[in-house]
Every structure is written in structure tokens, then in C-alpha cells.
Amino acid sequence: MTTFWLSTVILTIAGFAFIALPLFRKQNFDDDARRDELNKAFYKDRLEELEDETDAGVVVDQDDLIVDLKQSLLEDIPADEKKIGSFTISPMTVFGSSALLLAVISYATYSVFGSLDKVSHWQNINEQLPALTQKLMSPEQDSLSEDELKDLKLALRTRLHYQPDDAQGWLLLGRIALADRDADTATGAMEKAHNLDPKDPDVRLGYAQSLMMSDNEAQQQFARSILIGLLQDDYVDLRVYSLLAFNAYQRGNYEESIRFWRTMQKLIGPDDSRYSMLNRSIENAEKMLGKAVTTTSVPITITVDQNVQLPEQGVLVVSIHDANGTPIPVAAARYPIGTFPRTVVLDDANVMMDGQSISQLDSLIVKARIDTDGNVTTKEGDWYGESQAVKMGDQVALVIDKQY
């Protein structure tokens, strides 16, 4: 705010300079002297004309005309006493009154039409941006009020105007807009963040969330592709499953929505307060479908032994096998290597052959392998692990600790 008022003072001083310049600038000529020279020249020209007219017999009273000419010349020269008695205003008086009038009119006009209160509020919330951001990100503090959310959006917009390459700043603005149900701002901010950092999973999820708010089918399809990509990259976040389930329900694909909701139940467990809410969503989808749907998903926790050296490139291959039958996998999936420990979820969407289902298994074994060359048929040097045989529905965990 100090910078703003300083700039107004500078502009006002510049206005004073424009007033003072014509008042105090030294004239390069003398008006009285120029008038006298002009009168003398006129007097001489008129005398010559009278001489010519007298010689031609046109003028007979030359002396009287010369007297009149001299009288008119004297009348054009102000008397000294008239100059002394005349009223004059000093340039300093004119400058002082004009400068005062300029300052009063300028600041009075701005105070009425310049939205001074809004500018002051804007400047104040810019200074409060760190505190508002900390309050937003701190779960132990009270949530921001509606006015504070609007203030935070305005402050973030101001900062991003000067720092347009801050992907995390655009992400934060998009999240605030999502909380405020401002679809246009959310989509625009998330798109900028995605353009700046398209590989960041949080940015990808935020962009998908904003696109899901749109009524445009093409944008919703793009959002689904982003979310599926996050699942393929093993980005385990309940919001990904929740968004996919809700979108499937809106499209009338109730079986798919049920599959995602049941996967969420597997991840959170029956002790979580959200488990019963997901049950109600599943029951509602089954009611819309007109039948009960049985889907099975298997969450698998994978850890890596400390002796395992993870390659810079490669994939994690996870497969489910019938514990009592053929070693050919019933279901399988590939993931980026990522970090460990981690949890992946396989379901009937990962079955290898039509007609098969994970739910048909009474017991199962899970195998995981870190494929270093991208070719699943070669195993030389690959690290792998295998779970114990477990009954369907039991927790599955394994450790990768062996090498081919």
C-alpha cells in the first residue's frame, strides 16, 4: 500500500510541475519593447505617406494630421502611473492556489470513484496470504470461512499474476475453487498446473476432479483417462476410486461403480466410518440395476527385502493364481516400480480370460516380480516374491526377496 500512495504523490508533483512551468519560465522577448518598435515603424511609414499625399495635393493640412498621429502613438504607450496603480497577481500566488486545487480535486475524486476500500482490502489480504495458506493446510485449526476462502483466492490470483510458473500455486488455487464449487476457476487453475507439471500425481488428480465437474462428455472422458492412468501408476488414493465410481454411476454403469466402491471398502476396512456409507451406495446402485452384483477385489501389500536393488527402469508384475490348480495366473496387472511398501488392488477387471472371475477361487496365491527389461518372458536377474496360500477374503501380503 505504501508503494501505491508514493506513486500518487509522484503523479501529483508532476502535475505541480506542469502548472509551474508556464508561470515561472523566463520569456525570451519583451512585449513592451516589441510594441514600441512596431509603433515607431508604423509612425515612420505614415509620415512618408503624408509627404507623398501632400506633394500630390491630396492633403492640405499636413501639420494637423501629424499632430493627430503623434497623439495616437502616445495613447498606445501606458503611463507609468497607470502601471503603478494597476492590480497584478504574483505567479507564486497563482501556483499555490492551482496546486492546492489540483491536489484536493484529485484525491477527493479518487476517494469517491477509486474504490479505495476495496484496494486497501486487496493489499491487506496479500499480506495475509502465508497465514491463510497455513490455516488452510493445518488440520488442527478451524476450517476457513467463506469470506476467508474468497480472500485466499484473490491473494493467490495476485501472486500467480507475478509468478505464473508456480504449478503448486495453481494447484492450491484449483483446490480452493473446487471447495467453493467454482468450476470455471477450478478447471482453469488445474489446467495451468497440469501444463506446468503433467507428471505430478496430485496435479493430475486435481485436474481430473475439476474436469469431472463439467457437463462436457469429452472433458469427462479425459478425466476418466487421467484417473485410470493414476491407478495404472499405482497411485493409491481413495479419491481416485471415488471419482471413478461416481462417474460410472452417473453414466448408468452401475456394475462398474459397485466394483470401485467395493475396492474402496477393501482399502479402508470395515472399522472405518465410511464403510457403511459405501454399503449404502452399493445397495442403491444394485437397486438401480435390479439385481445384486457380486464382485471381488484383492488388495495386496508388497514389501521389498533390504538386499534388493531396485532398477531405475522396469515394471512390477503382480499375478493371482489358484492355490489348488494351474500355475497360469487367473488375473494379472503391471505397475511402475514406484516405492515400497505399497498396496495394489486386483479385481475381476484384471482377469486373463473371459469367463474367469477372482470370486470363483476358494484360495489363492499372489506372486510379484520386478521385471528389469520390460519383457515378461525373460526372468534372468529379476527379483520376485510369493505369498502364502490364503482363503478368498483374507489379507494378502508378500515380500520380494528372491532372484532368478
UniProtKB/TrEMBL annotation:
It is found in: Cell envelope. Residues 301-401 form the Cytochrome c-type biogenesis protein H Ig-like domain. TPR repeats lie at residues 167-200. Its main location: other. Residues 118-275 form the Cytochrome c-type biogenesis protein H TPR domain. The keyword DNA-binding does not apply. The keyword Membrane applies. Keywords: Cytochrome c-type biogenesis, Membrane, Repeat, TPR repeat, Transmembrane, Transmembrane helix. It comes from the Bacteria. The chain crosses the membrane at residues 6-24, 92-113. It holds the Pfam family Ig_CycH. This is C-type cytochrome biogenesis protein CcmI. The lineage of its organism: Bacteria, Pseudomonadati, Pseudomonadota, Gammaproteobacteria, Vibrionales.
